[in-house]
Amino acid sequence: MEQAIRIGALISGGGTNLQAIIDACEAGKIDGRVVFVGSDKDGVKGLERARKHGIPTFVVDYGEIIRRYRRDPRSMETPEDFDLDECLARQNLFPPTSDPEKVKAFFVTRAVAEKALLEKIAPFGIDLLVLAGFMRNLTPYFIDRFNTDPDNPRIMNIHPALLPSFPGVDGYGDTWRYGCKVGGCTVHFIDYGEDSGPIIGQRAFVIEEGDCLDTVKQKGLQQEWRLYPECIQLFARKRLKTVKLTHTLDDGRIYQRTVVKVLEEG
Ligand code: GRF
User: Fold this and answer.
1) Which of 1, 31, 148, 213 suits a disulfide with 236, CB 3.0-4.6 Å?
2) Pocket residue to mutate for ligand 1, from 158, 166, 213, most atoms within 8 A of Cβ
């Protein structure tokens, strides 16, 4: 086996994807191991799963930070290296028409939480950070400090829909309610937007007449548990490369997008 990569995971809940990743590492299907599991809230089942495998855990309580800001915004000290304007210039989470106070509250509280995350993560010296049901958007403050080489992103996420359809918090619900005949899941690298980064892998499933939201979720999760470890293994084997493609459309407009190329083994 080539040198095993060190994987960190962030979760918010049940952690079935985390379990699939840990199991794949233990079974030798991923050349790597999970060296920590962090959560944005305490008491979630995913943390228990980690402990059962002897994996160190930590919590950065986002909810507490957000409540503290609401009580007294001025008392919240932002990290020394946080620059709100720089974050606003890079972010792609809020449209320009958004309420500036809400946007400010978001980035200030996230910077405080993300600084704590960075401090907890640093000692583990990881190669890859996987978001496995982590229900918080990371901001440019965190992303730029973790992804120090912009050509080699190293934060992955799994999303419960065939992106770019149905970004946001309820991919399977949105797919189901829309009346789609096919659903799916997507693993992608994180960029400054919500579920908008370069796509690494996707899997689809058929939605049949007899399906309900629960069966759609079950079908989707079954696919997720296979797809995520496969994508992580591609990363571990150094088979993922991001390239910036430029296309000229028929009407002369230029379309640019960073995409993932999957390289041949070896
Ligand atoms: C999954 O559907 C994942 O795609 C989404 O959140 C859910 C997490 O499930 N981001 P689990 O915590 O891995 O069981």
Assistant:
1) 31
2) 158
Assigned CATH for 158-266: 3.40.50.170
Distance from C-alpha of 193 to C-alpha of 60, rounded to nearest angstrom: 22
Q: Could you tell me the pLDDT band of residue 87, with boundaries at 50, 70 and 90?
A: very high
Q: Which residues contact 154 (CB under 8 A, 6 or more apart)?
A: 127, 128, 129, 146, 147, 189, 235
Please name the residue whose Cα sits nearest to atom 9 of ligand 1: 133
User: CB-based contacts of 236: which residues, under 8 Å, 6+ apart?
Assistant: 2, 4, 5, 30, 31, 32, 128
Give the mean pLDDT of 109-123: 98
Mean pLDDT of 121-136: 98
pTM strictly above 0.85:
yes
Q: Are strands 240-248 and 199-206 parallel, antiparallel or unpaired?
A: unpaired
| Contact present, 128 and 5 (Cβ < 8 Å) | yes
- Measured in Å, residue 123 CA sits from the centre of ligand 1 at 26
pLDDT tens readout for residues 152-176: 999 999 999 999 999 999 999 999 9
C-beta of 133 in contact with ligand 1 (< 6 A)? yes
Q: How far apart are CA 135 and CA 12, in angstroms?
A: 6
The CATH number of the domain covering residues in 1-146: 3.40.50.170
C-alpha 131/C-alpha 14 separation (Å) is 13
In the chain, which segments carry CATH 3.40.50.170? 1-146, 158-266
The answer, yes or no, to whether residue 1 has pLDDT greater than 80, is: no
The single residue listed with the structure tokens 């000692």 is 123
Residue 177: half-sphere exposure toward Cβ, Cα within 13 Å:
7
Nearest residue CA, atom 14 of ligand 1? 16
Active site residue 247: no
